[in-house]
Structure formats: C-alpha cells, structure tokens
Amino acid sequence: MHQFTFKKEERLSSKKELSSLMSEGEHLFAYPFRVTYKKCSDSLSPTAVVISVPKRNFKRAVWRNLLKRRSREAYRLNKSILPEGESYHILFVYVAKSELNYGSIEGGIREALTTISRQ
RNA sequence: CCGGCGGGCGGUUUCAUCGCGCAAAGAAAUUUGUGAGGAAAGUCCGGGCAGGAUAGAGCUCUCUGCUGUGGAAAGCACAGAUAGGUGAAAGCUUAUGUCAGGGGUAACAGAAAAUAACCGCCCAAGAAUUCCGUUCUGAAAGGAACGGGGCUGUUCUGAAAAGAUCAGAUUCUUUGGUAAGGGUGAAAAUGUGGGGCAAGAGCCCACGUUUGCAUGCAGCGAUGUAUGCGAAGUAUUCCUCCAGAGCCUGCAAGGUCAUGUAUAUCAGCAUAUAAGGGCUGCUCGUCCUUUGCUGAGGGGUAGACUGCGACAGAUAAAUGAUGAAAGGAAGGGGCAUGCGCCCCUUUUACAGAACUCGGCUUAUACGCCCGCCUUUUUU
RNA sequence: GCCCAGAUGGCGGAAUAGGUAGACGCGCUGGUCUCAAACACCAGUGCCGCGAGGCAUGCCGGUUCGAUCCCGGCUCUGGGUA
Length: 119
Hints:
The protein is of the alpha+beta class. Helices cover 38% and strands 20% of the residues. It has one domain (8-118): 2-Layer Sandwich (Ribosomal Protein S5, domain 2), CATH 3.30.230.10. It has a 4-stranded mixed β-sheet with strand order 1-2-4-3, with helices on both faces. It binds 2 RNA strands through residues 1, 4-8, 11-16, 18, 50-52, 60-62, 64-66, 69-70, 72-74, 76-77, 102.
C-alpha cells in the first residue's frame, strides 16, 4: 500500500542486532557504498536499514546530513526491489571521498538491492 | 560625485510530486497544527543544574589586574583617563598594580650592561732629559746619512769643563681623583645654558623632563592643574610582593526499573589508645570499614525510562529529495546611446539544534539603512 | 556529545625561568679499503641564490631589542569517556 514510506520501524538501532549484523553479515560493494546485509529469521518485523557516512571523510555535519538524506531517499523510492515476505538487516556505508549527486547514489542503491534480492 | 571610516540590519521566494520528527483528534485509514542559526560552529570564559564524606579549613597551585556604570558572573559590554603607534582626516590600534620592596636576567657587539675606570683629563710621589734641522727613501707610518745642541730660566760653587739648589717644560711608572668625550648596542647613567673646580660631576643656579608625598581647586573616580618639600643609576613582571577570584568532576554527570552473576583462586600488608580507605599535591579536621585493604586474575550486564516541563525536542539522531519558475549579482552580445530594454552563460554564501542560559572568537556570495571625514581629482 | 594531548631537516628524537636552532642515532651522497661488494674509517648532507644574502620549529597575528619557548586565533593528527 504505502510502499514509499520510511518509518521508524525500518531503522535499525539496536546495538545487539547491529553487532550481530557486523559479525555474521555478508559483504558486497556497490559504488559509492559498502553494503553489509543479513537475512532476518523473524519475518514479522520489516526490513531495517542503517546508513552511515564516516566523519573521517566529511568533517562538516552539513555534508554528512545531506548525503544521508539522499541515500535514505534513494532507498525509500527503490526498496520495492526486495522480494515480498522476506526481511533483511542492511548496513550502507558511504565510502566515496567526494560528494555525489542524487543520480549516482540511487544507482548504487539499486545495484545493491538487486544483488541482495537475487540471492 | 568618487573614495574612506564607524555602527546597525537582511541574508532568497513560489509551485508540483514523493517523504520525515513531534503534538492533538480518531477504532483505524487518516486529518490538522508545528519543525534550525546568526553564528546552531570552535569549546575560549562565566553561571544554572547534578554528583562527589554535611566538600569543611589552611598551605601549595591556577587565573585576573587603569577608572566608573550595568550585570548572577565573566579573558563580558558601554563610557571615560594617561602614554605610545598609524592615517591627510573621520578613525583604528596597543599598553597601563608594584623594581622610592627583594631576587633574577640583559645574547652578540662594546672600555663598560648595573657596587661601571680600558683610553682620555687632573692632583701628588718617584725616575729620566736623544732633541732639532737638512737630504735620501716611502702612498703613509717609519727608516737611513750628515750637521748642530745637550730642555729653559734664576741663584750658588768652580780657572775651565762641569756640578748643585729652586721654579717651569716634556716623557715614563705608581697611588689616587674624575662619568664632560670615546666607531658599539634594543638600551650607555635626567636635557640645554651658565657658574664652579686641580680636572670634573645635579656639586650649585635658571628653564625643562620623569616621578613620590602633602595641600588647594575641578571631577563619583582613574586623572588634570597650581604651590611646596623631596627623588632621579636604565630596561624587563621571569620569581617574589600587593589586591581580587577559584574545591573537583561534568548530562556518556546522575537517578529508577529490568536482565545477569562468583568477590573462585593466588601474592602482599594489617589486626583494636590499631590499621586501611575515600575524586587533584601536602597538612589538619571529618566520615566509613573491621575477615579488612591493595595488586594480579576471573564472572556478569551493556536494554528501557528519566534527566530532557521547551510556541523544534531527536536519541545510529527529524526539519528533506527531485524537478520547474521568479528575484539578486557578475560577465558577454544586441537595440538605443539620455534613463533604459531584451537575450545567453555563470553564480546564489557560511553553515545543521542534542541539558540549558550570558558572553567571546572564528566563517560568511550579495544587498540595504544611518552617521562621520575631505589629501588628490572633477563640477 | 563531553574532556584532553601533540605538531622541530628524508625518519626517530634533543634543545625552553626567551639569547648563535637543528645535539645524538638512522638514512642518503662522495672518498679510502677491495678484483667487486659488505663491514670499517674519513668528509659532507634543510630550501632559494653565481654571490652578498634571504627564507626555514604546522599556519596567521601579538608582546619583546630578540620567540621552537609567552599570549590569542585557525589547520591537522592522536587519545580518553557508557
């Protein structure tokens, strides 16, 4: 129904789940992102996502916020690529050194999501 | 007018599609309302607040330092004082408790850098009297040869040569006196003129400079000004001294609930007028413990609420993304060449709340307003 | 978020109550030794400039006669804190 939404339940915030994702998750690379993902056993909860922009590459909070907003927007508009009924935990890390426009970021997100859904 | 200086503001707007945080309403779908800044930044000062034995006293330590007012306070603001720098001016900018308390330091250069005597000048004592002219050489300093005289004057002795005495001249040595002069240096002993003196010197005088105290006047005051009595051997707050302020840690502080377990074992110390400990170093005071403390080593948890009442209030952290217009600025082109109009391109800053206030500092495309100045140039 | 610390030749690392910056070690360059190399020994070694000189302690200012040092402000790097 409301597939273009991005609610609070779709954000991964539990420290426990994050550390399990980091240790057990699978890795892939889709420029400008390094993606870590894991299929969730509990399929009742929706797919949860973390987006991270390292402080090392972007000193100013304005730039970090801008890139996170663009990435979130791209995920929100393209998350229907993932198969219905499955649940994932996904971590996106923005690894490019420079600021990219919305088109490049959306391309990266789409590539990552199609790769995940194929497996 | 141009240009310059000071102060104060603003710092994009609209539409379309899809979304986010919070609050309220609703059974729900959903609807309505609301949602970043002047610096939210740096974390440089100061509070509130919280905890640390009732954080309590002294020393140590740290910070501040002209005056007045405001302020809870501040390495705060405004106004002012004195002195310096800069500018043509408006103005801008720096410093200011004390070396008439003490200690330290002053590299290099220089005679000397802080109880100054290396040269020079002068008094005294002692010793000595190889000096002049011409020529040659040499850039000069100097050197060589020849000639003249044996420092000058007075008195005495002596036949003469010569000698002695006293006074003076020159040179050397020694003991003193002198800060007027000496290529240095960031800084050289209060400046100029006169008197004075053996030579000199604030040693004395006049006019000044800097400065302490007292009194009068002006001012709330810093201070200014006048008079009187004094001082003047420089600079620097590095330490000390004087005045004032400061206990420490910081919301990842701290509190509540839930989950979870084991103070196993080893080493050292101590056992009641004793020992050990506690969030800065020392001392005191105080409090706590008495199978205690310290070290090694091991086990468990790491979720939620609160703190966080807010005309934003999150907690891997909302306030947006994409597209299109309008406006501003800069550049180019065309029409006009008096204002102006049209088109194209580029650009549209710095930057994102995290317990919260008061300041400071730093970053900032561009635009607007007010006041002030007039060196050059034009009218 | 909060609280701290640091920055010196190519590298590590000295020097501070303000007074000639680069001690010392490593490395590099040249030479001696060797058939050749290693080891060892000797000399040199920041940059610009023919030279006289100038610039150099992360960067920009200030105080001072004179700052690696003292005082502001930026930049970068590292650490602690549930």
